[in-house]
Structures are given as structure tokens and as C-alpha cells.
Design brief:
- The protein is 34% helix and 30% strand.
- Strands 1, 2, 3 and 4 form a 4-stranded mixed β-sheet that branches. A two-stranded antiparallel ribbon has the order 5-6.
- It is elongated.
Length: 86
């Protein structure tokens, strides 16, 4: 099962690399028994959702545990709202 999990992890990492909405350098991926765990910090809810969608789109991924934290969203030139992920 470890080889299959590693293959799935590599597929997700590749999806994240090509997704313009996600900074793949800020997302860590672990796969265990077909469950993808995403950890790290992203700048927006959109990036968080995109990373989860990328993982879910990977064949043979049964479930995604999205632990990505949204560290801030900028609204205008000087306003930042910090949000916690659930």
C-alpha cells in the first residue's frame, strides 16, 4: 500500500504544481490508505478550496482531510482580514 500512497501523493503534488490558484510550495501532502492530508498555509479560501479539489480529482483518493490554514486575505491596498480554517 505504501507504493500506491506514494504514487497518489505524487499525482496530487503534480496537480497542485499546475494549479494557478495554489502556491504548491506552501502545501504539504501526505497520503495514507487512499486518504489525502493537506497541511500548510495558503493566502485565501479560494486557494484552500482549489487544493482540496485537486486532491479529490485524483483517481483512487477516497477522502481529503484539508488542514490548510487560510492566513489572510487582502481587501484593498491596506486591509487584511485574517481567517481561521475549520
Amino acid at each position: 500500500m505504501e507504493l500506491e500512497d506514494e504514487r497518489l501523493r505524487n499525482e496530487i503534488v503534480e496537480q497542485l504544481f499546475f494549479d494557478d490558484d495554489v502556491d504548491d510550495k506552501q502545501v504539504w501532502v501526505v497520503v495514507c490508505d487512499g486518504v489525502a492530508i493537506l497541511e500548510g498555509a495558503v493566502p485565501s479560501q479560494r486557494a484552500r478550496d482549489a487544493a482540496e479539489s485537486d486532491a479529490l480529482a485524483t483517481p483512487d483518493i477516497a477522502w481529503v482531510d484539508n488542514r490548510l490554514e487560510v492566513i489572510g486575505q487582502t481587501f484593498g491596498p491596506h486591509r487584511t482580514r485574517h481567517a481561521r480554517s475549520t
